[in-house]
TrEMBL record, chain A:
Protein name, per record: CcmD family protein
Pfam families referenced in this protein's UniProt entry, alphabetically: CcmD_alt
Organism listed in the record: Dyadobacter endophyticus
Keyword line: Membrane, Signal, Transmembrane, Transmembrane helix
Residues in the signal sequence: 1-20
TrEMBL record, chain B:
Record's bilayer topology term: Multi-pass membrane protein
Keywords, ordered alphabetically: Cytochrome c-type biogenesis, Membrane, Transmembrane, Transmembrane helix
PANTHER family: CYTOCHROME B_B6 PROTEIN-RELATED, HEME EXPORTER PROTEIN C
Name of the molecule in the record: Cytochrome c assembly protein domain-containing protein
Annotated source species: Dyadobacter endophyticus
Compartments, as annotated in UniProt: Membrane
Highest taxon listed in the record's lineage: Bacteria
Length: 74, 227
């Protein structure tokens, strides 16, 4: 099961590169932004915010675990 | 459920969605332009909410058939994270509608249906808070939860499709599948739904554990005669 899911994950990661963006530029999209518009900065900021939220949740989780251990709840 | 792996999985999936959601390729469509990326965040939110509310209903049924108060705890907390997602879905939908349909709340059957649905679930929370006795609260609100879900699905998914709606898949509009057929969207949307579901379950799990600790504490107090 573990091996199958690993293979599937690898295939998914590889397949991402196979789809090239269509060359049609008639519809306005944020092409400039993606060329050199530092969209990565925004992605990084959002990722940092979510990382903070995730760390916070994990800490609450571990604190609860500690209390449960003290009280001997399952 | 106290295992850590699915929480790590949730974090990894949401990071994937954040990065691929902004950077990944999307189909070029007029009017919605770049805002099609909201599919990953707004649409996935509603899907996750539906699954969460469905899970909550299953636990309500389980409570009614087995009578364990723990199942009612699980049902109510999962319903709460589902309602939270629903409120967020309304707000994010408002923002998106403002810039693509030109009105934060167009008179769209799907929007009004969603608002009514959220209100039905708000009534569920109100009902829960109006009982003192635990078993009574659990029994009556479990029955209500089942009915709420049974009403919720038609008014949010079926009725809007019978009339004209701005949302895809309604009236003369193309179905969700016609732009979802794009594999680029699919590769991020489905992980996004799973990520949101796991996040909702995580929040619910934390709240359930707090509830259990509180119940345990109360029982201790009763045992030692301090209450």
């Amino acid at each position: 099961m573990k091996r199958i899911s690993l293979i599937l994950l690898t295939l998914l990661a590889i397949s991402g590169n196979l789809f090239a963006q269509a060359g049609d530029t008639s519809v306005a999209m944020a092409d400039k932004l993606r060329e050199d518009g530092k969209i990565w900065v925004v992605v990084a900021v959002v990722a940092v915010i979510f990382a903070g939220i995730a760390i916070n949740m994990l800490r609450i989780d571990s604190k609860l675990k500690k209390i449960e251990k003290e009280l001997n709840i399952k | 459920m106290r295992k850590i792996w699915w929480k790590i999985l949730c974090i990894v999936i949401i990071f994937y969605v954040i990065i691929m959601g902004f950077i990944g390729p999307v189909p070029r469509l007029p009017i919605i332009n770049e805002s099609i990326r909201n599919t990953y965040f707004h649409v996935a939110l509603w899907f996750a909410m539906t699954i969460l509310l469905f899970t909550s209903m299953i636990y309500s049924i389980r409570y009614l058939s087995k009578g364990r108060i723990g199942d009612d705890d699980i049902a109510s907390e999962i319903a709460k994270s589902g309602i939270f997602f629903g409120v967020l879905g309304c707000l994010t939908g408002s923002v998106w509608a403002n810039f693509t349909w030109g009105d934060p709340w167009p008179n769209d059957p799907k929007l009004n249906g969603a608002a009514v649905g959220i209100l039905i679930y708000m009534a569920y929370l109100l009902l829960r808070s109006s009982f003192e006795d635990e078993q009574r609260r659990a029994r009556i609100s479990s029955v209500y939860n089942i009915f709420a879900f049974a009403v919720f699905i038609p008014i949010i998914y079926i009725l809007p499709r019978l009339t004209d709606s701005l949302h895809p898949g309604s009236g003369g509009n193309s179905t969700f599948g016609s732009y979802d057929i794009d594999n680029d969207i699919r590769k991020v949307l489905y992980p996004a739904v799973i990520g949101y579901i796991l996040l909702g379950l995580w929040v619910a799990e934390l709240r359930i554990r707090i509830k259990r600790i509180r119940r345990f504490h109360e029982e201790e107090l009763i045992k030692t005669g301090r209450l």
